[in-house]
From TrEMBL:
It comes from the Bacteria. The keyword Nucleotide-binding does not apply. Belongs to the ferredoxin--NADP reductase type 1 family. Residues 3-165 form the FAD/NAD(P)-binding domain. This is ferredoxin--NADP(+) reductase.
Length: 458
């Protein structure tokens, strides 16, 4: 039997586990899927926006995999800490596949970023998604009339949409009650989503962009003069020749909005382009009042140059949404520039050589790019490297059932029935609030629902 630990139960971890047990070349593979959290599914549970129910429903197929009898889910198990260093994990399993994602946000690196009211989109997403590490985050929404979101990727679109949506649309989701209440109390009227480059260079996908124009009570708008700064916007023929289909379709959506007269909708989303943030401005009490941007111009090579012209956009809330970054895991090599673990076809490289029994998949392998489905081929590549190595790996004798060793180390793994108990408790919480299932947003609540005697470590 080949015993494998997959660390992380998000899409890349689950796809890796699925590939390992469903293949036929190496019989008898058993996989434990470990997660630091008591709940599975990673970013599908804690990153996909609550109003994107179709993408959320992917949890159904991830569940089917985790319920396979050859796979065990072990939640509430932190790898890389004192109780379970990576070296110990490798003693307990023939192989370990790290699928730990990219948990950190990037900073803008400009003055004023530390002012009250400036947050990372990652923190905002974690908060409204009920991530237990974000239970103490405070978003002072009632005082917010206008918000600025810096960045033009799908996360920026997500947070812009959630800010602009009405409570009636969010209430049927599983958003935790405190976040729903705070968003309901906000008097927000305007969200500006600001890109440093042009409309043809937005990182968002068309479906997500288009959705901003379909929200009830919300007017999506882009300034025609600003769009026209992009040569590929003004010349559809050149755009058709030079751009991938997604960028061309994005331009069509923006053209539609630019032609629309302003409506009387109570809330407005403004898409702004060619503005790079240079300073966050604060007022009395150290709270953000505006973001200062420098107007940029295309440099003809896909980048932009500064023009020395500045514009301040008022904001009482600023979310920087400029990409995720991997965090080093103690005991694993790490490339601090790329924010990933060095690898060759998924085999972890130590000093340039493949480390026996250690693998990576997902964002910690390739960086924070792609949609959920991108993780499937990524995990498959890693799994096939592991399976090629299987004969040599399986020769090592293991000390016994790793679960006993985890418990002996003072850990309290949450097994699958514990997770199902969390699900039931969330359904019950929803019923008590007159809503559908509602997430439990804190560690004590999750562990109590799972019937777990204690926190992650001793
Ligand atoms: P992203 O797609 O890499 O977008 C990052 C954005 O930040 C870009 O517009 C980038 O502009 C901008 N940026 C970077 N540094 C900046 C700076 N210093 N100042 C101003 N702007 C800056 O990252 P993401 O939005 O975090 O998304 C991560 C991944 O998750 C993506 O693959 C995304 O598609 C995926 N995702 C998908 C969905 C969905 O399918 N519904 C939802 C959420 C996330 P430049 O282009 O100029 O660098």
């Amino acid at each position: 039997m080949l015993r494998v630990a997959v660390v992380g139960s998000g899409p890349s971890g689950v796809y890796a586990a699925q590939t390992l047990v469903q293949q036929r070349e190496v019989p008898g593979v058993r996989v434990d899927v470990l997660d630091r959290l008591p709940a599975p599914y990673g970013l599908v549970r804690y990153g996909v926006a609550p109003d994107h129910e179709k993408i959320k429903s992917l949890q159904g197929s991830l569940r089917t995999v985790l319920e396979d009898e050859r796979i065990r889910f072990l939640g509430n198990v932190e790898v890389g800490g004192a109780a379970l260093p990576t070296s110990r994990l490798l003693e307990l399993y023939h192989a370990v596949v790290y699928c730990v994602g990219a948990a950190r946000d990037r900073l803008l690196g400009i003055p004023g970023e530390e002012l009250a009211g400036v947050h990372s989109a990652t923190a905002f997403v974690s908060w409204y998604s009920g991530h237990p590490d974000a239970a103490d985050e405070v978003f002072d929404l009632p005082g917010v009339d206008t918000a600025v979101v810096v960045g033009a990727g799908n996360v920026a679109v997500d947070v812009t949409r959630i800010l602009a949506r009405g409570t009636a649309e969010l209430a049927p989701t599983d958003m935790p009650q405190p976040a729903l209440g705070a968003l309901a109390d906000s008097g927000l009227r305007r969200v500006s989503m600001v890109a440093r480059r042009g409309p043809s260079q937005g990182k968002f996908t068309t479906k997500e962009l288009r959705e901003l124009g379909t929200l009830p009570g919300v007017d999506a708008w882009a300034d025609p003069a600003e769009l026209a700064l992009d040569p590929l916007y003004t010349d559809p023929g050149a755009a058709a020749a030079a751009l991938p289909a997604v960028a061309r379709r994005n331009l069509e959506v923006l053209r539609g909005w630019a032609g629309e007269p302003p409506s009387a909708a109570p809330r407005r989303i403004a898409l702004r382009f060619y503005l790079r943030p240079v300073e966050v401005l604060g007022g009395p009490g150290g709270r953000v009042t505006a973001v200062r941007f420098e107007r940029t111009a295309p440099d003809g090579r896909g980048g932009v140059t500064g023009t020395g012209v500045h514009e301040d956009i008022e904001a009482q809330l600023v979310l920087r949404s400029v990409g995720y970054m991997g965090v080093p895991l103690a005991g694993l090599p790490f490339d601090p520039v790329r924010g990933t673990v060095p690898h060759a076809a998924g085999r972890v490289l130590r000093a340039g050589r493949a480390s026996v029994g250690e693998y990576v998949a997902g964002w910690i392998k390739r960086g924070p790019t792609g949609v959920i489905g991108t993780n499937r081929p990524c995990a498959k590549e890693t799994a096939s490297s592991l399976l090629q190595d299987a004969a040599a790996l399986a020769r090592r004798e293991l000390p016994g059932d790793p679960l006993d060793a985890l418990r002996a180390a003072g850990l309290h793994p949450v097994r699958w029935p514990g997770w199902l108990a969390i699900e039931s408790a969330e359904a019950e919480l929803g019923r008590s609030l007159g809503r559908r299932s509602v997430k439990i947003p804190d560690w004590p609540g999750l562990l109590a629902a799972a019937g777990s005697p204690g926190p992650a470590g001793p």
